[in-house]
Amino acid sequence: MPNKQRVEVRVNGTRYVREVEPRLTLADFLRHELNLGGTHVGCEHGICGACTVLVDERSARACLTLAVQADGCGITTVEGLRDPSSGALHPIQQAFVDGHGLQCGFCTPGFMMTTLELLRCTPDPSEEQIKEALGGNLCRCTGYQSILDSVKLAAQRMKPSTPA
Amino acid sequence: MKPAPFDYHAPATIDEAVALLARLDGEGRDAKILAGGQSLMPMLALRVARPEILVDLRRLGTLDYIRDEAGTLAIGAMTSKQAAADSALVRRAQPLFQAATELVGHRQIRNRGSVGGSFAHADPASEYPAVALVLDTGFEAAGPDGSRTIAAADFFITYMTTALEPTEILTAVRFAPFPAGRRWAIEEFARRNGDLALAGVTVTFDVDAGLCRNVRIAAFGVQATALRLTAAEALLEGRPAQAAQFDAASKEAAAALDDPMSCIHASSAYRRHLVGVLTARALGQAAARPH
Amino acid sequence: MAIEIPTLPEQMPNDASRYVGKAVNRVEDPALVSGTVEFIDNFSLPGMLHCAILRSPHPHARILSVKVDAALAAEGVAAVLTGEDVGRWCNPCFTAPEGWGNYCLAVGKVRFVGEPVVAVAASSRYLAEDALELVDIEYELLPPVADAGQAMASGAPLVFEERGTNVMLDRTYTWGELERVFAEADRVVSRRFRWNRVGANPTETFGCVCRWDLADNSLVCHGAYQTPRFMAIGRAASLNLPVNRVRIVTHPQGGGFGGKGGPRGTDIAALLSRKSGGRPVKYIEDRMEYLLAGGGQSWDRHYDAALAVKADGTVTGFRVRLVDDQGAGAEGYGTISAAKPLAAFTGNYRIEAAGYELTLVATNRAPTYPYRGYGPPPHNLVLESLMDCTAREMGIDPAELRRRNYIRPEQFPYTVPSGNEYDSGDYHAVLDRVLQMADYDALRAFQAEARAAGRLVGIGVVNTVEPGVFDWNAYATVGVPGVGVPEGVKVAVDLFGGVTVAVGFSLQGQGQFTVASQVAADYFGIDIAQVRVATTPSDVAVPHFGQGGSRLGVAVTGAILGACEKLRAMFCTVAAHVMQAPEGGVELRNGCLRRIDAPEHSMSLAEIAGLMLSRSDLLPPGIEPCPEATYVWTAPNRNAPDDQGRCRSYLTAANATHVAVIEIDRDTGRSAILDYFIVDDCGTRLNPANVEGQLQGGVAQGVGAALYEEYVYDADCQPLVSTFVDYLMPTIHEVPMTKKDHIVTPSPVSPLGAKGCGEGAIHTTPATILCAINDALAPLGKELLETPASPHRVWKLLHEDGAAA
Ligand SMILES: Cc1cc2nc3c(=O)[nH]c(=O)nc-3n(C[C@H](O)[C@H](O)[C@H](O)COP(=O)(O)OP(=O)(O)OC[C@H]3O[C@@H](n4cnc5c(N)ncnc54)[C@H](O)[C@@H]3O)c2cc1C
Ligand code: FES
Ligand code: FES
């Protein structure tokens, strides 16, 4: 049997240390080792984007990453979006709710994590920039219109208020 | 859809990595280098690749850089594509390479996929090998016998095969200075935005007194590996940078192709046709680009 | 006592609706955006094993031997299931016509690539997949039946030898004087069409966790199940268990669209549980399994169709011959899918006669399954394309030709030749609205200008009827007898006035829990947060069906209203008793039970429920201490079909008209959607945001079917699509951001006047896009009659004689 590897990660601020088989994907690691089931898996070969998480603040497909590759990294998943003390939804989550940006919700964590990175890098994105950012995430339910609207809503709400 | 088992090493230095690869090779074991995993991981998941051992380069921070080496742009193999796409230096020094990088997949892919990985992977549909052919990219490899530099023309052998030995690591790519005023373009045709191209063409040329000089045209997605379209280049060389000439060159580009690939999305004939269309578009766009 | 279900929101016992008709936020969403919803792969049981399935690499082969010893000895493996076990313990699936169904694992021979042959249960999915590599199977290859044409050729190999033919069903329906209208027509417009296979591809594949309790011979299946009760009956039938020993626990699903599959995977996981001594077994279908052999392939159709037209453009007859390639067995209710067009065979038109020749054949492609819309989307493409061909041939504007043939508003309820009755509508008003919104004249002017400049710009104007609220009677003539589809709920009021609605289905994305909450909250005049909707396991739930056939929103509304009406009667009786009012002297209004003669005397919901539960001494005789009611709704006034399949099948007839503007790139053959407009009428819009979401989602799937998606098989019947690299679902870049408007013609016969609209635009979008493409091609004298209109296909058409050069 292959040598197990030690993996130490900080997920949504919590430190985890596990010994894992090298072939374990980060998606399976998060979902089944750490019981963080909010990161969904729709294809396991890198196309659908459902498994998108942030690794060291940058969006990544958790199905195309090995758990061992994340050793030493900080990871943010959908479970890390809500305010830890108040439990309030993150503005992106709230915008998806208010904008009816989801139907079955299976793709939604991936879209929201992608949006999180987008709005950090581009706080006031144009429609084209939003589409460009979300182009790697598939949604089979919504037809994307309400997702686009939700991201615009989130951007608007998260915009740092310009000093008068 | 889970990978078959493999052993895993993440060496801390290049020397260690090279030594490890050499040892495993000597033992006749099937080792594979892992960079960003954005091409290798799907192959592992589908079990079409099933190496015994992965040698992960993630700890080789020394291969993550973008720098100007006396006019030559050098990019470490483990630099992420997104970093290359975002780099002001890359944009200034190698605008074609920067544009090609933005065409690769989606941001999630570029965040993790390395610059070196795309060259080493040598996917025939990738933008990178074709761009390397027109830009005279040099590939620096580290192996048991030290380092060597391989010219782009010698680097891409055939379908997903490069001149790298199994014991060699691609450490950096170097781009010859891109002369001011040189025209460039990259045009591709994919079924959906972000998909690997069914066909693509990239061009560079200079315009000197209205005439095309140093014409380079390369195609991707059409054959087992990216290729220079030398007949079309020759046709355009020294000719006026005008639509009629571009047209003739693009017809030649299509006609001179040897048996393009065929797949469910595009027959060989369609690919040939697309190469003509894309060559015309790329030449036109390059000529029109303000510089 | 007959229960009257309100057919308008105003008939509910409140002064004004707070929720019904409003785009309220969905009650489902806070958990979904938090990532805490228990999709099936987030669920596990102690001691659970994981299943992996070895699948056939051959389209048609006899299984000579199966060796599993090495797999059984592999690390972590608890059980291995083979065709031998299955042949001994199971029956073939019962959703296919007798003799055309497969076992869950191949028995004796394999009939398609991807057919399960051996299954393993191990302590992890990784180990289970490892063990599969140790299984050794010897095959004798048989010549495959690669397509429908081959299937019908004489001397063709047989997919099901015992049947002696590959034709599963061959029948002709004739409605009205078909021969006469064609004989008397001034013009007959006929074409052949090819609709290539597409499929549902929900983002979550199928999954389940099954536990076979060997002590009391019962089975519990947790999973992503769309129609739980039906699934329970099916498992009982295939696994030889009493129905009341099967419990289906349905979990929220990451989409379904009819193509979730499930029976096969469930049976396999259940049998592995049985074989491993009753340990729970999880099976999560992966995407490759789904694409090759899951519930995701639909509509592999060859059409030959014609319209009979009078000189003034009146269409009098519509004849369709359909050869439908069902693949290797009709396990996915294939017969039903081909029969559904009967519910709206002649679309929005007053066509007096119609005929349908239906041939279903078996091939060695994967079995086909339902997909959103079921049978009509390809059928609509045929009818609407023929309307456009007619318009072109006659030099009439396509919108005008349609208008001339519409059923007129005063003609409703209108019975179509194929038997169904449309409840209501105003097709002229919908067309007017969309043409105005799109500024149709300006679009045509733009097109003329573009054409003059050599551009290939086309406009599609297409209308369809969406039959809503399905009934089994629609399918009685193709093998599923029955009238009525029950949808039941239990509504309970608790001590504090909270309301729980227990349903038999789970979340799938359409927002039914929200609709249920809206209706219950408005009925009782309470805050929507006081309503909770909960899923009940199949064995204890009130009779129900679940999602399917554009019916659940309407059906669950009807069921809740029925239960609420029962509660109202009960509460009024109790309140009259305790308030010492005369019998019938208390009414429910805005959540209060008040004396009609003295409205200031009233009781709240909490008071009445609390009293019922805690003061039996105060209850009138004959009233149980149970402030709960069940109601099972089914569409009213349904009848059994006649010998030509005619009956009142689908209760409601929503309709929509779409306008698409498309430009084809001559050089590459690529079609770009420049603009897209929709006006629809689905009666009362219970939650407008839900309706628009369903519509836009249907547009996306329609765009996929029309331009991108296709399951390709080669000449040897090998599937060439097994990953998302090749099955191209539209991304945000490919789907048009549509401009929408609507009109409201409430259904006179359905709860609150709502019409089934869950399938939405998939009925209309493929036809609209293809019509626009053909409009663009018209100046070249070319027509594309095959989907998807991929760039390659369009390019071939453009270049077959140098037309675009
Ligand atoms: C959805 C999706 C879309 C994509 N679209 C595109 C696209 O449009 N265009 C495109 O070009 N690519 C595309 N890709 C591929 C992507 O760009 C990959 O990142 C790239 O091909 C490989 O880089 P990597 O660092 O991930 O390499 P890996 O996947 O880790 O490795 C790829 C191969 O290169 C070898 N290798 C990697 N690094 C080295 C090295 N330093 N020395 C020697 N050998 C090495 C590995 O052994 C392996 O064989 C796409 C991928 C996905 C999942
Ligand atoms: S599951 Fe990772 S991209 Fe689909
Ligand atoms: S909401 Fe269902 S896949 Fe996006």
Structure in words:
The complex is a heterotrimer of chains A (164), B (291) and C (805). Chain A is an alpha+beta fold and 164 residues long. Chain A has helices spanning 26-33, 91-98, 108-121, 127-134, 145-158; strands at residues 5-11, 14-20, 52-55, 58-61, 74-76. In chain A, a hairpin with a 2-residue loop joins strand 1 and strand 2 (14-20). The longest helix of chain A is centred in the last third of the chain and has 14 residues, at 108-121. The model of chain A has no long low-confidence stretch (mean pLDDT 96). Chain B has 291 residues and is of the alpha+beta class. Chain B has a 5-stranded antiparallel sheet. A 4-stranded antiparallel sheet of chain B has the order 11-12-13-14, with helices on both faces. Chain B has a 3-stranded parallel sheet with strand order 1-3-2, covered by helices on one side. Chain C folds into 3 domains: 9-36 and 485-633, Aldehyde Oxidoreductase, domain 4; 41-142 and 205-253 and 261-293, Alpha-Beta Complex (Aldehyde Oxidoreductase, domain 3), CATH 3.90.1170; 301-474 and 640-798, Aldehyde oxidase/xanthine dehydrogenase, molybdopterin binding domain (Aldehyde Oxidoreductase, domain 4, 2-Layer Sandwich), CATH 3.30.365. Helices cover 27% and strands 23% of the residues of chain C. A 7-stranded mixed sheet of chain C has the order 3-5-1-12-9-10-11. Chain C has a 6-stranded mixed sheet with strand order 7-15-14-13-8-29. In chain C, helix 7 packs across helix 8. Chain C starts with 28 loop residues before the first helix and ends in a 6-residue tail after the last helix. The mean pLDDT of chain C is 95. Chains in contact: A-B, A-C, B-C. At the A-C interface, helix 2, helix 3 and helix 5 of A face helix 1 and helix 18 of C. Bound molecules: flavin-adenine dinucleotide (FAD) and FE2/S2 (inorganic) cluster (2 copies). The site of flavin-adenine dinucleotide has 29 residues of chain B, from strand 2, helix 7, helix 8 and strand 10.
